[in-house]
Write a sequence for this structure.
């Protein structure tokens, strides 16, 4: 079972994306990624959100955002987390179109 704090970070980051609050979202995701080394369940989702928030903060940072999204996809594949892989792939497709 996942610690509730991890899911709360994902939910908060989604709210930050929807409200265009990239700095707050990136700070929350960076802290979560630091902790996720010990509990990697949501790493793919954290990297997906980091990619989206990076692009939201600076629309010219497409390469950096794309790198985070590719990292999210790779992590999700290694974990056989198809939902997170699909979410990251969808975010990448939106970026590339």
């Amino acid at each position: 079972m996942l610690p509730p704090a991890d899911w709360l970070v994902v939910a908060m980051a989604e709210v930050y994306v929807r409200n265009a609050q990239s700095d707050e979202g990136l700070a929350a995701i960076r802290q979560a990624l630091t902790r996720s080394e010990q509990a990697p369940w949501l790493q793919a989702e954290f990297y997906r959100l980091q990619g989206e928030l990076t692009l939201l903060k600076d629309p010219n940072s497409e390469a950096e955002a794309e790198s985070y999204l590719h990292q999210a996809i790779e992590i999700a594949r290694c974990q056989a987390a198809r939902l997170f892989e699909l979410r990251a792939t969808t975010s990448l497709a939106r970026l590339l179109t």
Notes: The CA atoms of residues 2 and 41 lie 7 Å apart.
